[in-house]
Amino acid sequence: MANPAYVIPAPVIPTLPVVGSDALFPVHRIYCVGRNFADHAIEMGHDPNREPPFFFQKNPDNLVASGSTIPYPKLSSDVHYEIEMIVALKSGGDDIPVEKALDHVFGYGVGIDLTRRDLQAVQKKLGRPWDIAKAYEQSAPAGGLVPAEKIGHPSAGRIWLSVNGDVKQDGDLNQMIWKVPEMIATLSTFFTLQPGDLIFAGTPAGVGPLVSGDVLKGGVAGVGEVEITFA
């Protein structure tokens, strides 16, 4: 069969590297879990009790490779960092049972959810979606993925982020309100999950603003690290 003739150039499929391999992980969608650490919920002025999880999305082409230098985002003077563990799915479906959820995980990585906080505050006040605050260009720095078959399924371990060498966020995965199997199971009731989906699993307390020239570095114990520089 001949290749299809597109009327415009077809978009490149966003990918993440796989640690220890030349293979690439193709990214389908990016889901983010909001306020999944109690201490972060408190610092953002919300109830830390175990309410049903909520989600928002970034776009796959918002990903930017670890080690990159990126510009300070436009239209904002208050951009915040949020370190997160990334869950990468190798398979999906609807209404996935909690006890079967980890069967769908390919591996794990480390990412930063960059947020134009001033724009988000305006959207919140108006009751509007967060897209312009969360899903803008280069808003999802990410490192390589490590297969679960090599490291298992992390449920505890340090998660941290430093700015110019000064540690700003320092928590533990065991502080997550909603655990990875619960995230996957809940998401699958709202969406048909697909191979290539990523889940940014939430951030601990300590989020804050950054300025041009800042170097962000963060990691998750046993998973990996991510680093990004602002021009």
User: Major sheet, described briefly?
Assistant: 6 strands, mixed
Q: Tally the helices.
A: 5
Order of helices and strands: EEEHEEEEEEEHHEEHEEHEEEE
CATH architecture: Alpha-Beta Complex
* Coarse structural class: alpha+beta
Low-pLDDT runs: none
> What proportion of the residues is helical, as a percent range?
10-25%
Give the number of DSSP strands: 18
Strand percentage: 25-35%
CATH topology: Fumarylacetoacetate hydrolase, domain 2
Ends apart, CA distance between termini: 46 Å
Strand order of the main beta sheet, please?
4-3-15-8-9-12
Mean pLDDT: 94
Give the domain tally.
Answer: 1
* CATH domain class: Alpha Beta
Shape estimate: globular
Rg for CA atoms:
17 Å
CATH homolog superfamily = Fumarylacetoacetase-like, C-terminal domain
Protein name: Fumarylacetoacetase
Pfam family, one: FAA_hydrolase
GO molecular function, one term: metal ion binding
Keywords: Metal-binding
